[in-house]
Amino acid sequence: MYPTLCTDAAKAAWIETAAADLAAFGERHRKELDAANRDGRFPKELYTELGRLGYLGPLVPVEYGGLGGGIAEYVVISEEVGRHGLVSGQIAAQGQRWLLNWGTEEQKDRWLRGIATGEAVFSESISEKNAGSSFKAMKSTAVRDGGDWLLTGSKTHVNLGADCDVTLFYAIAEEGLTSFLVDMSLPGITTAVTDPVGLRLIRTADVEFDRVRVPDSARLGPAGAGLRTFLSTFNISRLGNASELIGLGRRALELGLRYATTREVGDTTVTGFQGIQWMVADAWTALQAASLARDDAALAGERGEDVALRTTTAKRLAITAAEQASDTAYSLVGGHGLYFDTPYTDILHDIKVLKVAGGSNEIMRNYIARRVLNDPGHEGLA
Ligand SMILES: Cc1cc2nc3c(=O)[nH]c(=O)nc-3n(C[C@H](O)[C@H](O)[C@H](O)COP(=O)(O)OP(=O)(O)OC[C@H]3O[C@@H](n4cnc5c(N)ncnc54)[C@H](O)[C@@H]3O)c2cc1C
């Protein structure tokens, strides 16, 4: 299991235990998870249980209530979450990176432990109706008022926006793009739940800020450093997204195979057809390639190398692999898969969301192309 990531005996043992724990969690709570997914409801009690088990704070040091792990632990947990259809800790992990990279001691003391244990729910309020892939059209503003800031703006697509205790709000200040850690109980904040097709366990919301007053100590990183605070997190969290995609693809393939190996059609089973076998081989190969690229990026990240190209490549491969595996699963199960009480359409919808959120497929390709075209000999490309 995860042979490339098992760099020593302790890590191998941890990976085995984590994978078994998360599989058992999925089995124990399958009915509740499926019901919450159908209703588009955040299962807070299951989320905090995952936190208690130690699976929400992979990157957080033990003294702050986290696992004290590295990127390898983060990607293993993310893949197993996708593979067993669990409530995702992806947004929490992003919050952890933001805080660890840029947080003051006061900010870390206030929020890090809660986010790592699931007692405090984190969200990121970045996208707006007219500002998604590009920040250029962002309209939210941060205006200094004495020693405070007044934050105003309308955010959309915010996972856990109506369920969170703290959000990271991006706005344009005089100095440029700036991020703020905002307590959601402050006056001037309203939220409205929205209804995404996928990742419904961490449902989305529109989040409205109307002159929300925050002290300067709520600012995360220097004023004007918003792009740096954003990229320092997303260059790594792409691996979490890639891993969830790989897990979702594996889940689709595994469930499809479980059905198809016993489903008889004429005088054979579905998996007896060579055309089906080749689809399975191709889907497995794509998942394997994505996993290896993901593992390579994770290990390079743990060595402290610049991993932006590696993580982007891994997400790009993971999107294709997950879509291919999902498509193959539909071929394995035929009409049986085309009902909402079977899991295949939820899996497909989760894949479609992860294809866009956290940097879309097209943005991944733009970045890869830019790096390749700027390095014609390809010597600096990892
Ligand atoms: C379910 C869900 C959850 C989300 N969660 C969050 C969240 O928690 N917080 C948050 O802030 N945001 C969140 N997002 C927003 C997400 O990050 C954006 O949807 C994403 O960045 C794309 O922006 P957009 O949808 O506005 O598409 P646009 O930027 O309008 O792009 C539209 C299409 O054009 C393509 N495109 C854009 N630019 C280029 C280009 N230069 N070259 C080629 N193609 C291009 C895009 O890939 C896309 O296919 C979420 C989105 C969804 C759907």
TrEMBL record:
Belongs to the acyl-CoA dehydrogenase family. Its EC number is 1.-.-.-. It comes from the Bacteria. It holds the Pfam family Acyl-CoA_dh_M. Its cofactor is FAD. The lineage of its organism: Bacteria, Bacillati, Actinomycetota, Actinomycetes, Streptosporangiales. It comes from Nonomuraea marmarensis. This is Acyl-CoA dehydrogenase family protein. SUPFAM superfamilies: Acyl-CoA dehydrogenase C-terminal domain-like, Acyl-CoA dehydrogenase NM domain-like. The keyword Magnesium does not apply. Residues 125-212 form the Acyl-CoA oxidase/dehydrogenase middle domain. The keyword Oxidoreductase applies. Keywords: FAD, Flavoprotein, Oxidoreductase. CDD domains: ACAD.
